[in-house]
Amino acid sequence: MTDAPGSVEPRLPEQESVAEFSSSHKSSFHRLLGFLQATPSAIPLFVLVSAIIIFGLLNGNRFFSPFALTLILQQVAIVGIVAVAQSLVILTAGIDLSVGAIAVLSSVIMGKFTFDMGIPPELAVLCGLATGLIFGTANGLLVAYVKLPPFIVTLGMWQIVLATNFLYSGSVVIRSEEIAQVAPILQFFGRTITIGGAVFTYGVILMLLLVLLMSYILSQTAWGRHVYAVGDDPDAAELSGVKVKATLVSVYAIGGLICSFAGWALIGRLGSVSPQAGQLANIESITAVVIGGISLFGGRGSVAGTLFGALIVGVFTLGLRLLGADVQWTYLLIGALIIFAVTIDQTIRKVSL
What we know:
Layout: H1 12-38, H2 42-59, H3 61-64, H4 66-91, H5 99-115, H6 121-144, H7 150-169, H8 176-182, E1 192-195, E2 198-201, H9 202-220, H10 222-232, H11 234-239, H12 244-270, H13 281-291, H14 303-322, H15 327-352
Antiparallel strand pairs: 1-2
Helix pairs in contact: 1-15, 2-14, 4-9, 4-12, 4-13, 4-14, 5-6, 5-7, 5-12, 6-7, 6-12, 9-10, 10-12, 13-14, 14-15
C-alpha cells in the first residue's frame, strides 16, 4: 500500500533518541534507589565517615586520638545496645517506648535484690535479666494477641515500668563503692581492656557483639527473614506460612532481654545503680534507628545501620564539644538528620511501589 500524496513521514529517529535518553536517565535513578533500598546502611555510613573526616580536620589530633575515638564508643554503648532492641521492633513496623525504662528497672532489680534482699549477686543479675524478658514478652502479647497498637502498648508500659522503678527504689542510689566491695559483678561491663593504645570497656564489646550477632540472625536465619516479612506485610507473611503472632512476641521478648543487658551495662558505665539514669534511652534509641536507615514502616533496614546512627550522634556530640560549640547545635544537626533520613525512606518507598 502506498502513502497518499502529500503525506508527512513520521520523525522516527528523533522520537527514538528522546525515548532512549529518558529511559537511560530513569534507569540510572532507579538503579541508585535500588541500591539504597538493598543497602539502607549506605547513607548513614557515608554520613558517619564524612562527619569523622570533617571534625577531624577541624579538631586535629584531639579528635583522631585513640582516647577520643574510643570515648565515642563508650558514650554510645548503652544507647547502642538499647537501639539494637529498638531495631528489632521497628523492623516489624512497631515501636517500643518502654525500652529505656525497662533497662533502668532491670539495673535497679539487680542492685536492690543484692543489697536489700541479700540475694547472691549472680542470681540478682539473672533476676534483672528476667525482668526485661517478662516486660518485653508482655508488650509482645498485647500487640500480637490483643491487637493493640504498639505505640499505645509501649507508652502505657513505659509509665508502668517507670512508676515501678521509682516506687521500688525510693529514688535511692546505690553507690559505686558499695557495689565494688559487695557485688563487683554488677560493674562487670565497666571494666576495660587496652588494645593498641585504645581503651575499650566490656560494655562497648557487648554492643559490638550484639550488632554482629543480630546482623547474622536477621540475614541468615529463617526467624530473621520472618521478622522482615512481618514488617513488610503481615497478611502476606501469614499466607506464606509465617507465624506472625509468635514472631511478634519473640521480637518484643528478645528486645526486653537486650534492654536488661543494657541495664547491666549501665551499672558498669556509671559504677552505681541510679533509678534516674537512662530515662531518655527510648528517644535516643529511636533517633539512632531512624538515622541508621531502618524504615519506620518496617521491613527494611539493618542493625549495622543502627550502629552507624548511634555513632553519628556520638561523633557530632564530641566533635562539637571539642570545638566549644553550644550543645543546642548538636540537637539541631541531629534533628535535621532525622528529617533527612525519613525523607529518603519515603522517597524510596514511593518509587519502589
